[in-house]
Amino acid sequence: MVLKGKKITVGITGSIAAYKGCELIRYLQKKGATVRACITPSGREFIGELTLKALTGEEVLSHWKDGKTGLEHIFWARWSDAFVIAPATANTIAKLSAGITDNFLTSMALAYEGSIVVAPAMNCQMYKNPATQENLKKLKERGYLVVEPSSGELACGEEGEGRLAEIDHIYTELLRSLLPDYLKGKRVLITAGGTREYFDPIRYISNASSGQMGYSLAKMVYALGGKPVLISAQTCLEKPYGAEFIQVVSARDMYDAVMENLDRADVVIMNSAVADFRPASYSGSKLKKDRESPEVRLEANPDILKAVGERKRDGQVVIGFAAESDNILENAKGKLERKNLDYIVANRLDVFSRDEHSGWILDRDGNVVEIPPMDKESSALYILEKIFKR
Ligand code: CTP
Fold first, then answer.
1. Is 209 in the pocket of ligand 1 (CB under 6 A)?
2. Which one of 262, 272, 276 would you pick to mutate in the ligand 1 pocket, going by the greatest count of ligand atoms within 8 A of its CB?
3. Does domain 187-388 have CATH number 3.40.50.10300?
4. Once rounded to an integer, what is the mean pLDDT over residues 298-326?
5. Would you state the CATH architecture of domain 7-178?
């Protein structure tokens, strides 16, 4: 779990989206964090303190009352590895920008040393208002990490920008506030998912890849300060927050997209399960079963990673994946050499379409680092840290 051992304070302010602050608490706990909640007086109009206490199993920082020392905002700021304010109202954003400390939450913000994550939620006119926009700009200039709200139907009935961002997006920004920036400024090209090779308008050959590892890598590249460019075959997953996204279908589409983006990339991570073969012919109309059973002849697809290895420029880091059933390390080493890679991540076939991953990282000098079994997000982070911490 990526947040194992991390201590996080979730600040909740007086917005109708306050209940989503509770969802965020749950989400962060599922990622392994110990969470505390801090709520403003108007936030308490929406969410009861008892709810937060029951969810976190911790005291809640809310209002001045007996038994408090009046210094809690300082102690909580020191305790927290990360501090996220979600939802953040226009009022709280204005106070943060002006340095006003009229409640525990705004006081804690001033006492907190790291980058605070702020997820605004409000009516679209309030959000667009130059006062709010200027305040947010100021916060960004001071190192706050702002998770822009999404567009849609708002509680007031209007449509527009102002809905609290997705919980997973807030979590990803929070990771960026928490993790070291090993990939700062680096453009990282990642491929994901199993390509589809169609032989009629609705039938195709593909494989069992879910794309989860590639998407987790894109998320963790962003969390480590990088700029992920995700080239993805069809999957059931949401586009990862913070990534430039390019949708492809077949191996040939993926080849074109990779080649188009290769020169600007500092790092290439080829995680996609590329179909090695495609049907040699394509029928524009649906193949009918009352005819003779069709024979699908196959022809080879381009080896994208091999082409990347051949074109690799100085300083570019190229990482491949190898899914193997037998002689895992030996086969992976062969691929590393044949495709001119810097690293290859080898794993068994049973990681396909499962949330768990384990395997080995091999480099050009013959070093092998074991990846212990863990969820794919944690494994993605583990792999990136092992390679880029050096
Ligand atoms: N790969 C690629 N293009 C292909 C096939 C594979 O870019 N046509 C990449 C994969 O994304 C992966 C690496 O090459 O990073 C190894 O893929 P894998 O399927 O394990 O090996 P293959 O090279 O296809 O060899 P084999 O199928 O014989 O194991």
1. no
2. 276
3. yes
4. 96
5. 3-Layer(aba) Sandwich (3.40)
User: For ligand 1, atom 4, which residue shows the shortest CA distance?
Assistant: 303
pLDDT digits (tens, 9 = 90+) for 199-255: 999 999 999 999 999 999 999 999 999 999 999 999 999 999 999 999 999 999 999
Among residues 22, 124, 156, 236, the one annotated as catalytic is 156
Task: Kindly report the pTM of this predicted structure.
Answer: 0.95
Domains of the chain by residue range: 7-178, 187-388
Contacts of residue 277, defined as CB under 8 A and 6 or more positions apart, other chains included, come to 197, 205, 298, 299, 300, 301
- Tell me which residue has its CA closest to atom 20 in ligand 1: 322
pLDDT in tens, 314-329: 999 999 999 999 999 9
The answer to whether residue 236 is catalytic is: no
Please indicate whether residue 272, judged by its CB atom, sits closer than 6 Å to ligand 1.
Answer: yes
Two structure tokens written together for 345: 């991540």
- Our answer on whether the CB atom of 218 is closer than 6 Å to any ligand 1 atom is no
Q: What angle do CA 16, 101, 173 make, to 5 degrees?
A: 55
